[in-house]
Amino acid sequence: MLVKDYMTRHPLMADPTMSIVEAQRYMGENNIRHLPIVGDGKRLLGLVTRQSLLVDPGRLGSLDVWEITRCLTGLTVQDVMIKARDVITVSEDATVEEAARVMIDKKIGGLPVLEEGIVIGIITDTDLLAQLTKLLGEAVRGVRVTVRVPDKIGEFAKITSAIASQGWGIYAAGGVPAPKHPGYWDAVFKVRGVPRDDLVAVLEKIEGQEIMDVREV
User: Fold this and answer.
1) Can you count the helices (H) and strands (E) in the chain?
2) Nearest-angstrom CA–CA distance, 202 and 198
3) Residue 199 to residue 191: CA distance in whole angstroms
4) What is the pTM of this model?
5) How high does pLDDT run on average in the chain?
C-alpha cells in the first residue's frame, strides 16, 4: 500500500496572489482543509490550511470595521501560507503507514506529494481513515470478531486454519498489540456468509486464545 495508490491526484491548488478571503471561500466550497500554493509548473511555494487563515485578533484589535475590511481584503495567501521550506511533504513511493506516522508525529492532517519539487498529489488523514475502513471490510456485511492471542509465532495461523477447515473465507483481517496487555495481540477478522454462533463455536475451541468481541455488521 503506497501513497501513490491512495493520494488525491491533481489536487486543487492556488496562485500565491489569491486573496485570503477568496482562498477561504474556495476551500469551503470544495470542502478541503489543505491548499497547496504553487508557482510555474506546479512547483510548491507553500501550503495554506484552515488554521493559516485564522487572523490574530490582536492584529485587528485597534482597527475599526472599515480598516479591518481593508486589512483582510489586502492579504493574500503568500502572506499567511506555510513557506515551502517548512512544509512537510512525502514521496509517492512512501508506504501509507510511513505517511500516517509522519502525520501523527508532526500532528498535521495532510501531506503534499512531491516529485522533484512538483506537486503531483496530496494525502490526508481522511484518505487514510477511508482506507482503514476498507482494510477491515466495513462496507461488507458479515461477522466481525476480535480475538486476543499470545504474541507467539503461529497464533494467527490457528485462527485462519480453523476458519478454513469449515470452508469459510476471511474477507478482511488485521491486528494490533492489545491495549494494556503486553505480550498479546488483538486479531480482527471479518467473515462473510457465516452464522455468528457457528463462528464463535469454532473459535472457542482454540486453546490459549480469547474472543473479546463479536458482532454482525
Assistant:
1) 9, 10
2) 6
3) 9
4) 0.77
5) 90
